[in-house]
Amino acid sequence: MYRYILKPILFRFVPEKAHNITVGLFKTLLSIPGGAWITRKMFGYESKNSSVTIDGLTFPNPVGLAAGFDKDGKYYHDMSKLGFGFVEIGTVTPLPQGGNPQPRLFRVPADKGIINRMGFNNDGVDAMVERIKKFGKPDNCILGGNIGKNKVTPNEKAVDDYIICFEKLYDLVDYFVVNVSSPNTPGLRELQDKKPLSIILNALTKRNKDKKPLFLKIAPDLTEGQLNDIIELVEETGITGLIATNTTISREGLATKTAKIESIGNGGLSGAPLTNRATEVIKYLHDKSNGAFPIIGVGGICNGQDAVDKIKAGASLVQIYSGLIYSGPELVKESKKAIAAM
User: Fold this and answer.
1) Partners of 143 in the β-ladder
2) Could you tell me whether strands 241-244 and 295-298 are parallel, antiparallel, or unpaired per DSSP bridges?
3) For residues 85 and 336, what is the distance between their CA atoms, to the nearest angstrom?
4) Residues identified as active-site
5) What is the pTM of this model?
6) What's the whole-number mean pLDDT along residues 103-113?
7) Distance (Å, rounded) from C-alpha 70 to C-alpha 89?
8) What's the rounded Cα separation, in Å, for the pair 107 and 112?
9) Tens digits of per-residue pLDDT, 179-208?
10) Residue 41 contacts by C-beta under 8 Å, 6 or more apart in sequence?
11) Domain range summary for the chain, segments of one domain joined by +
12) CA distance 153 to 50
């Protein structure tokens, strides 16, 4: 229904508007009598032995919703009903910020890709805290918190922003993700260098009193040398593992005309163009580290085989987002089935 009816309609709207329409329609479906039952019948699928335990935290199944879809913790209860094993909210910053000027989200249909330069637009961590306190955690679904820094915060003080978000959300989410890899906040990716990153990760590790899983989300554009530094940092700081990968600044190999891509401008590219590179990074990290830590694989999962490829490359869990835009919510069930059949 999504691919042949809803998607053609939604693609007539600008992407941000389409996103709001989509979540609005889904919320309406869930609110009508029998709506939740219909959703479970359409998208529900669980296999035996589908759970995955990482650092003492058990994920009901290995397919999650990536950060960026629910930046403010407004939709995580609804999205959990699509059968996700975990939902990651954010990226959230200490203070509210409007993000970059619109338009800032673009479809690249010929490549099944998305380019975004959202810029960490969110209501701030206090608003997220209040929502989670009000609505609680979703049933049978792990809740993760993805944290970042405000645009106005200089990099030398970035650690303070991560600490603020970490401490305020600590008792409300099940795991954390440190986002230093978005290309849409000026200078943010500089924090992926070993010295500033070690300061942030060590500061959070010291405050992780209950030893909640703590992941670092990295860019797909890192060199092998930089990836080697990241592997060393995981060992040195004692964080749980990595999320690989965020969006890419590369525009190589696109079918879309160069003039069209140039007219869109800067931003992170996700979706199918990222599929192979994200899988390559996962495999490199897993092989180079001898599987020393868990990896959550994300980037270009557009069908069940893409999810399987991430697991075979070394990922323990996978996340999807852009693939939902092109393939629809059926992608969650398809991915779970494909992984279960491995």
Assistant:
1) 87
2) parallel
3) 10
4) 182
5) 0.97
6) 98
7) 5
8) 8
9) 999 999 999 999 999 999 999 999 999 999
10) none
11) 48-340
12) 41
